[in-house]
Every structure is written in C-alpha cells, then in structure tokens.
Amino acid sequence: MKQTLSLRPAGSAPASATRSKRAISASRLDRIHDLAREQRRYPSEAETVLAAALAEAFPTLLFKRKAVAGSVIADFQCRQRPLVLMLTSDSANADPALADRADRQLAEQKLTVLRFDPEAVVADVAAVIEQVRAAVTALTRPPRPVRAPRAFARPQRR
C-alpha cells in the first residue's frame, strides 16, 4: 500500500520537538563525564597552581576542578556561587567560536564565566585571585536582616 503524507493535529508535536533545546543524550553525557574524569587525572601546571591558590584564598568555598555543566567541562566551578573559571589559551588549536558557544551555554544556566590565560595564571596568580575575589564578592548575596522575634499574644478568652 502506498503511504501518503498526513498533517498532524495542531496540539500534537513530534517527540524530538518536545525535548528541550539543550537536551543531551545519556550516552553523550556519559562520554563528557568520562572525558572530565580523564582530564582530572592529568592536571596542567596552570590548573595545579590555580587550585592551590583558590584553596588558600577561599577556604570556605569549594571549587571543583573539571566539573561538567551541561555539555561544557568547566576548569573550575564554584559550588556555593554561580561562578565558572575557564583556562583558555590563544594557541592555533583554540577556536573562539567554541568558547563563545560554551559561554552562552553556561550563561543559560545562570553561571558567570571568567576566562584566564594559563600562562598568565602561572606568571601572576595573585592578579587572577584578585579578579576571582571581585567576582565572588559581586555574586555574594547580602546577609538577610535579622528579624526581631514576634510576640505572639493570644487573645484572651472571655
């Protein structure tokens, strides 16, 4: 029998259209996690220097190295603040279009991205820490005002 094209009713949509725009398949997400795990095993010199400096400068904040955020592997992600640190080099193999796409994906997740050159991190880690400190301060919510305890007076029964 010959098949013909038919129109779907307006209310129904194909299964692929109902998925979110940035949905990642389970197999791709597994590959991303495996790649991040492999990168965690062999840190670069800049990652080692920055990790030690972050741990010393921010003892109350946890920066996870090579954290997966969506389909992006962030070099450092702060768990207490919406902050991501990326080490990018200006070498020939670094594609600025990929970096822009990663920044957009992280911004969709409401994460602030700071990018640093690995050579600059090794050369002057104190300047990098000051930039991170400024970002952490900007992302810190002001403390909630302490409310005076309420006096709950029960109405007198007559």
TrEMBL record:
InterPro entries: DUF559. Residues 1-21 are annotated as: Disordered. Residues 32-135 form the DUF559 domain. Pfam families: DUF559 (PF04480). This is DUF559 domain-containing protein. It comes from Novosphingobium olei.
